[in-house]
Description:
The protein is an alpha/beta fold. The protein is built from 16 helices and five strands. It has helices spanning about 10-20, 35-50, 60-65, 95-105, 130-140, 160, 175-185, 190-200, 205-210, 215-230, 235-250, 255-275, 285-295, 300-315, 320-330, 340-344; strands spanning about 25-30, 75, 115-120, 145-150, 165-170. It has a five-stranded parallel beta sheet, with helices on both faces. Helix 4 links the parallel strand 2 and strand 3. Helix 1 packs parallel to helix 2. Residues about 80-90 and about 340-344 have low confidence and may be disordered. Zinc ion binds next to helix 3.
Amino acid sequence: MWSVVGQDKAVTFLQKSLEKGSLAHAYLLVGLPHVGKMMLAVNLAMAINCESSDRPCGKCTSCLRIAAGKHADVQVIELAHIAESGDGESKTKISVEQVDQILHSVNLAPYEGKYKVFIVDGVEFMSIGAANRLLKTIEEPVENVIFILLTSNQSLVPATIVSRCQRLELLPVSTETIEKGLIELYRVEPEKARLLARIANGCFGWAVAAIQDDTLIQQRTEWLDAWREMFIADYDRRFTFAAKMVEKYTQNRSVVQQKLDLLLGWWHDLLLVKADCEKDIINIDYQNELIKMAAGYSLGQIRSFIARIQSAKEQLRYNTNQQLVMEVLMLNIPEKNTIENLVA
Ligand SMILES: [Zn+2]
């Protein structure tokens, strides 16, 4: 009973390894944020330690304790939250101390289960020291210890770490599968499920988080509002916006990447409208506005701005001059032919 939606290939692979007793000592799960990496990692930890013959059963003490994050042998390392910031800001690195704290227990026997499982979420955000420390540990496999490393950007994970892991790629989940999963597993009303499945854009975990936390949808609306304002703003306001984004980037990189993803989704929707494929747009709750807006731009303008957004995302990842990257992006927002349509 794996409770991972839309990742059948990875699940089948892991299930077979489990049955054959051929589990790797380190896995690298690669996929978009919220695509299901943590869910799969927790399910694997459950399957490995499950007390039933049909693993993971989801019902035994071990499965329940792991699912609740209370099992002594399953530990998660992730970006630490800075308590004082108050708005969910997180540090940009996983520190040596964080890794050390957990790893010192690697050589101790499992306390309550069969295996010790260490899940490292956001392995691309490890400091060099932390990565080296981790590498040393996975280079010398310890019996009954399994590492599950999660990343949404493999290119930032040291190749030495990647080469020591069994790599599994989690692909975006289809809209239909997300919609079905939300209705069947989470009893979401069909209309809401349809909207969430679209906005989730392949990431089931995001949709699940959104049904549990209304602020996610609210946040999306706020971010989209800010972008939509920028489409018609003068250069002064665009530059102020760019400066704010850069400031944000130094505090929380993933938020800025998420905002850019949202922008990319919007312009991709415009492209779909332009190509008469409205039925495939993500932002279905803005359909009318997208149709109106698309009329004001040429296909070439939309395409070239999409390329600009993609390149800005890439450049930010590799620490190029962030201010410049954002300013160039803002400068390149295409000029609309008939602005009145957009405002109306
Ligand atoms: Zn179980």
